Amino acid sequence: MAGLSPALLDALLEYACSLPGASFDVKWGSERVVSIGGKMFLVCGRDALSYKVADEDFLMANGLPGVRPAPYLARARWVQVWSTDALSPDDIRQGIAGSRELVLRKLPKALRCQYEAQA
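and the corresponding structure tokens:
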């Protein structure tokens, strides 16, 4: 299991950070995290990344090559992508944007409106 290349991880992290309202942080010593309103929507490790998916997409996504339930976050419907066997970089970008939207919808209304106005 080789994992995603550092260059691809950096490009995907840069994309996530460019989304409206995104903020970057390092947690747990080395995990690069992108959040909105203080809530994570992407965790980028050394050779894989994790993000939230819609409940109805969770089982299907985990059946794809290179995708598995995210350690510690699977119960919240997060997947970990460690290869581009089934998902292209564009598919992963769409997943990251979808994760941001899912997290944004759960924010308090006043905060959600603030970030929606930025978009």
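(Above: one complete record from the training split.) The chain has a mean pLDDT of 90.
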